[in-house]
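Pipeline run #58 for the internal structure catalog. This entry was flagged by the ingest filter as a single-chain record with no existing model, so it goes straight to prediction. Upstream metadata was stripped on purpose; only the residue string is passed forward. Reviewer on rotation: M.T. Logging verbosity set to normal.
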Amino acid sequence: MTHLPRPRSSLSSLEAILGALVEIPAALLVVAEVVILFAGVVARYGLHRPLVWSDELASILFLWLAMLGSAVAFRRSEHMRMTALVTGAGPAARAFLDLIATCSALAFLLMIVWPSYEYAYEESYITTPALQIANSFRAAALPVGISIMAVFALLRLARFGNPRTVLLALGTVVAIIGVFWLAQPLLRTLGNLNLIIFFVGVVGLCVFAGVPIAFAFGLAIFGYMALTTHTPLIVLVGRMDEGMSHLILLAVPLFVFLGLLIEMTGMAKAMVAFLASLLGHVRGGLHYVLLGAMYLVSGISGSKAADMAAVAPVLFPEMKARGAKPGDLVALLAATGAQTETIPPSLVLITIGSVTGVSISALFTGGLLPGVVLAITLSILVWWRYRGEDLSHVKRATSGEIFKAFVISLPALALPFVVRFAVVEGIATATEVSTIGIVYALLAGILIYRQFNWSRLMPMLVDTACLSGAILLIIGTATGMAWGLTQSGFSRALAAAMTGLPGGGASFIAVSIVAFVILGSVLEGIPAIVLFGPLLFPIARLVGVHEVHYAMVVILAMGIGLFAPPFGVGYYAACAIGRVDPAEGIRPILGYMLALLAGLIIVAIFPWISIGFL
């Protein structure tokens, strides 16, 4: 057995120590946010004595949570990236592309760290209204988080076995940046052609090379601003801070944590067991259960990955025992992921509300029915595919067993209604309602289901910070990029082109569907919304399309792109959760994607489905 050289093992232990020093505060920040916001709800609604400082303190801690979470995600290599081309390469090419991705991220971090320090220093002149402390306490999270990520990037490069490959990757990235730097005089003369060079060329090259999406956006907007404009780079950091600091987005980590909680406490399992007792004996029954369970669980958690991870492990073993092919199972799981994108409290709905100003309550109301329409179109296909299923070995549940399963699942089934009631009745905001859900799930897990594994709590909190940091860093860099697009006059040109389309609102929706299927496939859902939401929603209003109806159409189109192979990140997440080779699901998913597209066209043609209950 060969021993690793000592320097490498000491680097690994140094990275592990640094990792723990970042993970523990990040996990504690998630707990602090839950406590502060829940205390705010109780004080305002229960005691009628609002805590004037609660939102401000939550906002200060939130930026720290976002940046430390981003650092955790960086260390774990969990920042969202498109791996379709990278995984298809040979082992040597894949290792080199992974190094290119790390070097590219490091380049962005080293270039932005000084402007972020300057920004934090400038913020020291601002005093917060309620707590009366310098705003630099909040803004300092940016340079600290960026520096920690840069250290993790350097450690990753130092730990790589072959120094020659590392130097080659570093040299490649430095050479590309050098070429752009030398081309600065030429770039300044090109005007809006730079938008294509940076926002299509640089972003496309980085995304397809496997650079995490957040850093691909960051490099593009940094290059655009530094090389083609005279705007100080501190402005870019300000836009990133603005994008990440919307208090609405605090719902992201809290709903992610709630999704993990319902799986751990057995609430998801209870819901699935009830649906299985109702439908398990019909042909294709467990496939309908998967559709229904994803719909219900999506009404609690906002994260698609958390939803799929809660439902799949409970259902897949029994479905395989009944003869379902693994490829068909992940295909349907991915399709339900796309189908349930509009169901509140979906993170995409929260993001749309944050970047476009559309009422979150209206989005939460409008999102329920489109999910049902797509469930129906998927169910028709399931019925067709499984109409000849052999059920001779399946025992039908008695009415007593169904009633027992219903009683056991009742506290879990009530949770989506508790969440929705609290938002619609004004008891809590969309951000605060997640804390009500978390407290409810904690009490149900401890007192009713008696299934609460305390040893899993810390890893769950770290996972929450990690996924949230990855999402929020994308929102930050995408906000910077959206600002760059707006300043360049692109949004005005886009508005003029879109409003001039023959056919008015109908052709605008058709073009949007095609655009968002492609964007969802290449960019992931949330960055596509942050980039194009502020540009397209005002145009929707101009051509007479209701903004809630438009939101549902673009979310579903984006969901289809996100879960469609070969590029959709969501499809590979479904395969990872179901532990199935992605190649097995490609054929069966085509039918499900067509069923989803049929449902989307119905939702697009009949606005009432989205806005009938507003």
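catalog note: The chain is about 80% helix and 0% strand.
catalog note: Confidence is low (pLDDT under 50) at residues 1-6.
status: ready for reviewer M.T.
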